[in-house]
Amino acid sequence: MSEKKAGRKPSIGRGDSRWIPASLLPLVDFLIAVEGVLNPYPTARSKKRKDYSVEELEDLLNWVSAFWLYESETIDRLLHWKSLKVEGEAKDYSLSRITPPIINNDNNPTMSKIITVFNQSGGVGKSTLTMNLGYHLAQHEHRVLLIDMDPQASLTAFMGLEPFELKKTIYESVMASEPLPIHTDIYGVDLAPANINLSGAELELVVADMRDYRLKEALSEAVNQYDYILIDCPPSLGILSYISLVAATHVLIPIQTHYKSLKGTELLLRTIARVKARPNKNLKIAGVIPTMHEARTVQGGMALQSIQASRIGTIFPAVPRSVSFADASQEHLPLALHNPKHPAVALFNEIAGSLEALV
Ligand SMILES: Nc1ncnc2c1ncn2[C@@H]1O[C@H](COP(=O)(O)OP(=O)(O)OP(=O)(O)O)[C@@H](O)[C@H]1O
Ligand SMILES: [Mg+2]
């Protein structure tokens, strides 16, 4: 919630939900109950509406649309369960019976690391990181494939392809099980590009069979051919990000060092927790990369400190804000080829080295 909004509701304290339209209250309460059941942390299970801060309740409302999209089956089952009014231990028992089976990735034969670069906030440097980390991993003699899962196709454009001219994109692989449309050896890395057609998949996937696993399926051949597959997510919590998390072994989270930087983080972590709770229980957080950092400003320093204190996981060194990034992407070059002496080049190399140590 923005500070402006907080100012609009000065008298509202923790647990006060008078600002929520009355018609939405049952839905909010229901989602709190559902979240309590799905959340892997036991403390979340007894939470009531009054235990939520205003910000948390706002997050919950924001979450509604994404939730309906990819948990609708669970909701149907829970509604059915709720009408049975099962209580206490019996409740846990009946839930374990009705929750769809966990797909176990333990037997995943691949050695490849599939790293999804994810943050629903726009413009935090996801595509830039995907391209540059991919380049450095390839420089370390790894076989690297980049997947563009954003209909905006920034990664595709940064890599020098013209999205509108592409006949085949990741869309056909996800929606029609066609082979990945791989463009090989762009500065040492391969790319499965996207274009605006992928926005159609957002809607088409809602009713698609086995939708959660569509990208995982599409990558099933590639996992034997590449050491690293980096997936660039769109700036949303929608189904394209969700299936990218389901397909991944790790998630990498860029966060801009801005005073609002941690605002969306709870929602982001909740989405990861939900993916870990069911369709991809082996998903690991590779770490957080603070981005666009302005070390000379007080605000930048404070934001970096709060990211470092957030305990989300490994916090990588901060990537500085610099116009060279926009210049490099305009020239369709990784930063290391645009300006080899730029301080961020050594940093990307260091982060790529850390990704090699992931287990
Ligand atoms: N460290 C940086 N300093 C300054 N500008 C940067 C930095 N990293 C990326 N940029 C620029 O910021 C813009 C947004 O970056 P990018 O497209 O990588 O973000 P994104 O998170 O992928 O955005 P979206 O959410 O829209 O997909 C681009 O013009 C890029 O060149
Ligand atoms: Mg992007």
Summarize the structure.
The chain is an alpha/beta fold and 359 residues long. The chain contains 15 helices and 7 strands. The chain has a 7-stranded mixed beta sheet with strand order 3-4-2-5-1-6-7, with helices on both faces.
Task: Set out the fold topology.
Blueprint: H1 3-8, H2 25-38, H3 54-83, H4 88-98, E1 113-117, H5 126-139, E2 144-148, H6 154-158, H7 170-176, E3 183-186, E4 189-192, H8 198-204, H9 214-218, E5 228-232, H10 239-247, E6 250-256, H11 265-277, E7 284-291, H12 298-308, H13 323-330, H14 335-338, H15 343-356
Parallel strand pairs: 1-5, 1-6, 2-4, 2-5, 6-7
Antiparallel strand pairs: 3-4
Helix pairs in contact: 2-3, 5-15
Can you put this structure into words, describing what you see?
This protein has helices spanning 3-8, 25-38, 54-83, 88-98, 126-139, 154-158, 170-176, 198-204, 214-218, 239-247, 265-277, 298-308, 323-330, 335-338, 343-356; strands at 113-117, 144-148, 183-186, 189-192, 228-232, 250-256, 284-291. With 359 residues, it is an alpha/beta fold. Strands 3-4-2-5-1-6-7 form a 7-stranded mixed β-sheet, with helices on both faces. Bound molecules: adenosine-5'-triphosphate and magnesium ion (MG). Magnesium ion (MG) binds next to helix 5.
